[in-house]
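Re: that backbone. Tokens:
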């Protein structure tokens, strides 16, 4: 008996659809821009004997090569490529229209610099034509591709292999989760077993079951175990009322499932935040490089030991990284005592180290961590593994701060400051959780301005 092809996993389908979308978008934008050049020739193509001569001119050929990658960068910034299988045809239309408008505005700025026509009406006609072309020529192939994907979902040709994890509640799965073919439970077990399956490439996401009335804090150990996989952790709340915490919601059946692995930022907001981090981090690293070099020499001359100190911290999805700092303590300060928090008058801190900490100059090398992708300019405060584990035991919701890249500065550092004990860390935690719920450009800029004021006033300690 012959069988059809085996279903395609959600992860494999996402990779294929992303590659197909990039290729089709590149071709669509190239066609749209070529048609726009033909329209432009018939409106303002004076000085050329034919359309062929106009299209083959160096300036037009250069624009034909440069415009598609610019539009693809806008599509990436919009978050369209982040989770293409989660896009609907309506959301795709809105995204395509938004990026078409942004691309048209970029062309308008270029025209304002050197390419305005003698008649204002012709400029409006050109811009309207470009917007219409970028909308229709790009959206139609996207619509066709997305329609095919939806049909494959409905036929069961694409499945989301899901590991169901229950903490203190029954693990029988309600039928509505499979009614649209979006989730297929391939295993049910503990968080540790689900993590092993993820590492073996056997699943695409996790479904964490929450019993009615079960506190979210009881689920945090399981979330902490699953976060390093970097996969979505969907929460099935059962009959538990909706919470106010801003986690991304995904409709994988008849009800919305918050994703506990991503926080409240949209894919577009995450991309813009990352671009801002890279741009600001590069500028800051270049500008502060001479000062960091001078401070490194001063650290080396005033106390024995290395100038820089690599300290292990817990980052995005609980993955460890090494944070770069200028050394402010005596060399080997924790060799005997083990991990210990610093407080006012700490004898381990060198005289120069106190000055560096007062103005937070010891943290300037962390812009390298930003460029490496370990950290963000603004984000929750990263802790060392020992203290992260202690804090998670005392305040389980601390696990949620790992939904986001840690930051050089944070709302907790601005509003509370350094913590010298676990109790003080717990007191500072609500500020980091508040940031997770309200993260965005405005609050990031407020935190940066407050940080600059704190550094200038010497209130780092």
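Recovered sequence:
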């Amino acid at each position: 008996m012959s069988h059809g092809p085996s279903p395609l996993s959600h992860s494999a389908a996402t990779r294929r659809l992303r590659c197909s979308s990039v290729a089709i978008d590149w071709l669509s934008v190239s066609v749209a821009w070529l048609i726009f050049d033909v329209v432009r020739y018939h409106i303002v193509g004076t000085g050329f004997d034919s359309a062929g001569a106009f299209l083959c001119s160096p300036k037009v050929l250069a624009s034909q090569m440069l415009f598609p990658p610019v539009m693809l960068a806008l599509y990436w910034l919009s978050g369209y490529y982040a989770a293409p299988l989660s896009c609907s045809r309506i959301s795709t239309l809105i995204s395509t229209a938004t990026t078409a408008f942004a691309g048209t505005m970029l062309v308008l700025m270029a025209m304002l610099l050197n390419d305005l026509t003698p008649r204002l009406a012709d400029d409006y006609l050109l811009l309207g034509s470009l917007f219409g072309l970028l909308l229709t020529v790009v959206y139609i192939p996207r619509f066709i591709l997305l329609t095919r994907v939806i049909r494959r979902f409905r036929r069961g040709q694409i499945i989301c292999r899901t590991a169901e994890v229950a903490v203190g509640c029954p693990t029988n799965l309600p039928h509505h989760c499979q009614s649209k073919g979006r989730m297929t439970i391939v295993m049910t077990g503990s968080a540790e077993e689900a993590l092993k399956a993820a590492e073996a490439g056997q699943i695409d996401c996790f479904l964490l079951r929450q019993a009615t009335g079960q506190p979210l804090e009881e689920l945090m150990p399981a979330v902490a175990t699953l976060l390093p996989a970097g996969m979505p952790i969907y929460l099935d709340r059962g009959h538990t009322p909706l919470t106010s915490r801003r986690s991304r919601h995904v409709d994988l059946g008849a009800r919305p499932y918050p994703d506990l692995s991503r926080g409240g930022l949209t894919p577009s907001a995450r991309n813009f935040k990352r671009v801002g981090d890279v741009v600001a981090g590069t500028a800051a690293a270049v500008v502060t490089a001479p000062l960091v070099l001078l401070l490194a020499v001063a650290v080396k001359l005033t106390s024995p030991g290395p100038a820089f100190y690599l300290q292990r911290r817990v980052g995005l999805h609980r993955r460890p990284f090494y944070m770069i700092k200028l050394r402010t303590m005596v060399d080997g300060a924790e060799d005997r005592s083990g991990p210990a928090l610093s407080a006012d008058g700490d004898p381990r801190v060198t005289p120069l180290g106190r000055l560096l900490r007062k103005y937070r100059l010891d943290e300037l090398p962390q812009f390298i961590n930003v460029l490496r992708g370990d950290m963000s300019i603004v984000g929750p405060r990263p802790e060392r593994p020992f203290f992260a584990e202690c804090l998670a035991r005392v305040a389980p919701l601390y696990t949620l701060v790992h939904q986001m890249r840690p930051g050089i500065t944070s709302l907790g550092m601005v509003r509370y400051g350094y913590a010298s004990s676990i109790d003080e860390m717990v007191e500072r935690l609500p500020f980091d959780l508040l940031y997770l719920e309200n993260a965005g450009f405005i609050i990031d800029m407020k935190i940066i301005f407050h940080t600059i004021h704190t550094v200038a006033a010497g209130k780092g300690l």
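The mean pLDDT is 86. Residues 178 and 184 are 6 Å apart (CA to CA).
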